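QA checklist item 7 of 12: single-chain prediction sanity check.
[x] sequence parsed
[x] length recorded as 272
[x] structure emitted
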Amino acid sequence: MNNNFVSCQWLAENLGNTEVVVIDSRFQLNSPSWGYEQYCNSHIPGAYYLDLDKDLSSPVKLHGGRHPLPNLDQFATKLASIGIFHSETLVVAYDDSRLAFAARLWWLLRYLGHDRVVVLDGGWNDWQQGNYPTTQDISSPQQGSFTPQPQTDWIVDIETVKIRKDLPEVILVDSRDSDRYQGKREPIDPIAGSIPGALNSPWKQVTNDRGYLIPLPEQAKLWSSYRPKKEIIVYCGSGVTACVNLLSLQLAGIDNAKLYPGGWSDWCSYLN
């Protein structure tokens, strides 16, 4: 077991562990109800479902991006209602999208001072292929206790990005696919392009096409040229898939990375 991920075999062996809470975070941006429907149809026994829009984000406003960080009190209440005890419970997050949504939950919990969180390597697809048990039973609420302790220096807003992005000791990383970074394609936001000065490190590089994390030496290699920088600011479209890169940076032993949660969706909202 790594401090940031576990295998399906490990999870299967620990399903009955009362100190482990499993969270299904499957989601599709173009079909917001899809993830919960999939959860109801089949999921890992004992797993709870957390929705990207409803649980892992707060309502969208004119600025701030498509997935603003959640209201901390509401999120803490939700976490407590599924049996999570702050700093004690081991949370295992999974999805079927190469960690796109599981990593958002992983990062959020760590941002709130809860380091006992891992992603499921290989995700739901590996769980099914391994013929591990599944269920349609909806998990009952459990009473935990969660007091958020946000690491406020882990995030930056648009003004901070503007001030810091061109400093020699800072590097700005765009986590989106290269064609979106280059402005050749923009399927979601109203304007195509990227933040001036940003370098591109697509989040899908962190896993292989089957959804498994690439080996740790390769994770480190992804960031070898970034390592000397004093500060790394990571963004994507709306602060979701950037968290996959933040997970990779953590696996590479780099701990000076920050998230711009608003991402391109926030940045371009000021360009209209």
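[x] summary fact logged: The beta strands are 5-6, 20-24, 48-49, 90-94, 117-120, 170-174, 199-200, 231-235, 257-259.
[ ] second reviewer sign-off
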